[in-house]
């Protein structure tokens, strides 16, 4: 019922977590843009084949 508190993260751990979070958000945004543009790329490729 009474669990001990979590350990405090060091400044280095916080910085690593922040960089990882930024990369995750950036990759999600890029993935969304690529998924949005993929039908247009397929149509463009079909015109040349």
Automatic annotation (TrEMBL):
GO terms for biological process: protein targeting to mitochondrion; protein transport. It is found in: Mitochondrion outer membrane. It is a single-pass membrane protein. It comes from the Eukaryota. Belongs to the Tom5 family. This is Mitochondrial outer membrane translocase complex, subunit Tom5. It comes from Penicillium frequentans. Signal peptide: none annotated. Keywords: Membrane, Mitochondrion, Mitochondrion outer membrane, Protein transport, Transmembrane, Transmembrane helix, Transport. Pfam families: Tom5 (PF10642). One of its GO terms (cellular component) is mitochondrial outer membrane. The lineage of its organism: Eukaryota, Fungi, Dikarya, Ascomycota, Pezizomycotina.
């Amino acid at each position: 019922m009474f669990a001990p508190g979590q350990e405090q993260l060091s400044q280095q751990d916080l910085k690593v977590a922040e960089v990882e979070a930024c990369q995750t958000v950036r990759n999600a945004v890029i993935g969304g843009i690529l998924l949005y543009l993929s039908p247009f790329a397929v149509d463009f490729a079909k015109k040349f084949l």
